[in-house]
Design a protein that fits this description.
Blueprint lengths: L12 H4 L10 E2 L3 E6 L3 E6 L8 E5 L3 E4 L28 E2 L9 E2 L2 H6 L1 H22 L1 H19 L18 H6 L10 H14 L12 H14 L1 E3 L21 E4 L14 E5 L5 E5 L22 H12 L6 H6 L17
Antiparallel strand pairs: 1-4, 2-3, 4-11, 5-9, 6-7, 8-9, 10-11
Helix pairs in contact: 3-4, 4-7, 6-7
The structure holds zinc ion (ZN) (3 copies).
One zinc ion binds next to helix 9.
Length: 353
């Protein structure tokens, strides 16, 4: 991967989230609601005015994995403790698994390692047995996908259900935790047969319920989880995604360092002229911020890709078709459409955001 120079463009996130304590696990702005569009399905919408610059969502990942080249020597790993997720663990300062499963697993302190014991115990044997063979035979992408699934299952097995899941305002019917994961869009019917066949093979070979992975789900349930994960996972990048118009000179969002599944953030649809930016904070939480004044009734969208890339209509639509399996019909795309362009879009967003 190419070398990226990181520069700081803005204040650290905690300074921008007025009145929301850092310990707050999840938060949604009271004016951000879930609604259902007859064509696009589930979406986020403003019930009342949301001023520019407002933090509208803080969502903790239900599962997160590091995505780095050469993890043994890479200083960009995240802490494996899902309550921490601290980034940029130096080689000298991090702790590895005592069972030597894989170099991608590390903790920033013994406190984090101890706190993460039950969750990591769930994945450790699986990682030790299958990580290398999967990487060699299927490649890094499929390994990452399977590891996210294992971490989803690990969280499901080990995360205590919060006594009060309703840190969100009571008027919000948004589901959280495993219930939120179960409600994500995506099923075998939304993916090409060949893709589903390949995932079925992977489930059979590597994700069956058993002593190595005691999750108690059927193969079909795990396959369904893959279909959901692939339609809803986020890539994590050091800088904001979705600044529009893009800053000049063009500065991209940087190199991906993690992938994660967020139960609430996953509901946001795409626009090439989004009214929210998104960026992970230093704890791996996904933060949505209003990048414009959002009027009552307007849909709240993010950009699924780096807007400093794929700038013209053809390139944007091609990228979205290839990576997310839909033809974008956002205001910007429609306004730039030549008269003869046909509208054959499907509403299903897919793959890493
Ligand atoms: Zn930590
Ligand atoms: Zn381990
Ligand atoms: Zn568009």
């Amino acid at each position: 991967m190419s070398q990226v120079v990181y520069i700081t463009l803005e204040e650290p996130i905690p300074n921008r989230i007025d009145g929301i304590p850092k310990t707050q696990s999840d938060w949604i702005h009271p004016n951000l609601i879930e609604s259902v569009d007859p064509v696009k399905g589930r979406q986020l919408r403003a019930s009342e005015h949301i001023p520019k610059g407002t933090c509208v969502l803080i969502d903790h990942p239900y599962a997160i994995i590091p995505v780095v080249d050469d993890p043994a020597t890479n200083d960009d790993l995240i802490c494996s403790n899902s309550a921490c997720n601290r980034r940029s663990l130096s080689q000298s300062g991090r702790l590895s698994c005592s069972n030597s499963c894989i170099a991608d697993v590390s903790w920033c302190s013994s406190t984090c390692r101890d706190a993460d014991k039950a969750r990591h115990d769930f994945e450790c044997t699986w990682l030790k047995r299958y990580a290398d063979p999967i990487r060699k035979k299927w490649g890094e992408y499929d390994f990452g996908m399977l590891w996210v699934i294992v971490r989803l299952l690990a969280s499901r097995q080990t995360k205590p259900r919060p006594q009060n899941e309703n840190v969100l305002p009571t008027s919000q019917p948004l589901k959280h935790g495993w219930a939120g994961i179960e409600s994500l869009c995506g099923s075998v019917d939304t993916w090409p047969h060949e893709q589903v066949r390949s995932w079925t093979t992977l489930v059979k070979k590597y994700l069956q319920n058993g002593p190595v992975l005691p999750h108690g789900l059927s193969a079909d349930q795990v396959l369904h989880l893959i279909c959901q994960e692939e339609a809803n996972s986020f890539g994590l990048y050091p800088r904001e995604t979705g600044i529009y118009p893009p800053p000049q000179p063009l500065v991209g969002r940087g190199e991906q360092f993690a992938a994660a599944v967020y139960p609430t953030a996953a509901m946001a649809n795409h626009s090439c002229v989004p009214n929210m930016t998104h960026k992970p904070d230093e704890d791996g939480r996904m933060i949505f911020t209003a990048s414009r004044d959002i009027l009552p009734g307007q849909e709240c969208c993010i950009s699924y890709f780096d807007l400093t890339k794929h700038t013209d209509l053809t390139s944007r639509r091609e990228h979205l078709r290839k990576s997310f399996k839909f033809t974008c019909q956002c205001d910007r795309c429609v306004s730039e459409e030549p008269a003869e362009e046909t509208n054959d879009w499907t509403p299903m967003p897919m793959m890493d955001i």
